[in-house]
Write a structure and sequence with these properties.
The protein is mainly β. About 0% of the residues lie in helices and about 45% in strands. It folds into two domains: about 210 residues, Galactose-binding domain-like (Jelly Rolls); about 70 residues, Sandwich (Immunoglobulin-like), CATH 2.60.40.3080.
């Protein structure tokens, strides 16, 4: 299955629709081969803020501030207040839950205008429905144009984040199969008012590349034994399809090796989760594989 699902629960709706302006979009990139059991993706057209925060200042709208005076693609952006500088002692978050079952890219443009090392924005992720959160730079995802470990924010317990003043930055997150992963964007400020504009985000895109993951186990036309495995696995077809190539990939979608054999030695792999891609009769299938 090639699937992206947004889970947008228990949050305050910021806005439902603004004509043709795209705050974020979802795209699907097909492969050259026919996709087994292809379904459409579910999409949503609004963001949600954390309504447990009494003075959450995230808004979708047209920025008309001193530094933030236009969106990346006009007229709208996600911004820490469209009219005013950010207040003292503020904590404001928005977030969403994402499910994909393939190689996925999250891309967005953003600007920061905050008191250096005191105020700023942090991106976190959760794999347990928000019970615990981890800074995105500590994840196994492939990141581009993110903050360094030295870029800390004192108003947010010295977590690493975007701080200071920048022009437009294009940041990306690349991962394989975001299985009910929450992403949280949080802006915080301390007790000193510096009359700055905060954080502005625009043109968020989430792209899921089609590689043929089957949503239901009974739709996967091969039997893999054992799985989990420690050394060797054996692959057998449940129908008449003939296996042409088997590729093992890590959780970031990087190819570890490929083979045309149906008995495969995994003993050189580190313990963990992998994805097995099988090409059979010009069809492509992917399933999860655990090396223990």
């Amino acid at each position: 299955m090639k699937k992206i699902i947004f889970f947008l629960e228990f949050f305050m709706i910021l806005n439902n629709s603004y004509g043709q302006d795209t705050i974020y979009s979802i795209a699907y990139t097909p492969t050259a081969n026919r996709i087994f059991n292809l379904n459409d993706r579910d999409t949503a057209t609004y963001f949600f803020a954390d309504n447990s925060q009494a003075n959450n200042i995230w808004r979708i709208g047209t920025p008309v501030k001193t530094t933030f005076n236009s969106a990346h693609s006009s007229p709208l952006a996600l911004v820490t207040d469209t009219l005013n500088t950010y207040p003292n002692n503020n904590v404001s978050s928005f977030y969403f839950m994402l499910y994909t079952d393939d190689l996925t890219y999250i891309n967005f443009w953003h600007r920061i205008n905050a008191d250096t090392l005191n105020d700023g924005g942090v991106l976190e992720f959760s794999t347990d429905y928000g019970a615990t959160w981890e800074n995105i730079i500590n994840s196994s995802y492939h990141l581009t144009n993110f903050y360094s470990a030295a870029s800390t924010i004192s108003s947010n317990t010295n977590k690493q984040g975007f701080t200071g003043t920048s022009g437009w930055i294009y940041s990306t997150i690349e991962g394989y199969a975001f299985t009910y992963v929450k992403f949280r964007f949080t802006f915080t400020s301390d007790n000193v008012n510096t009359n700055k504009d905060g954080w502005m985000i625009d043109d968020i895109q989430i792209n899921c590349l089609g590689t043929g993951i089957s949503e239901h186990e009974n739709n996967f036309p091969f039997y893999i034994f054992p799985n989990p495995a420690s050394d060797f696995i054996s692959i057998h077809s449940n129908n008449t399809e003939q296996i042409g190539m088997v590729t093992i990939k890590d959780v970031l979608g990087k190819t570890i090796f490929s083979t045309d054999k149906t008995v495969i030695d995994l003993s050189q792999l580190d313990k963990g989760i992998y994805f097995m891609e099988l090409i059979a009769d010009n069809n492509r299938y992917v399933t999860r594989l655990l090396r223990n």
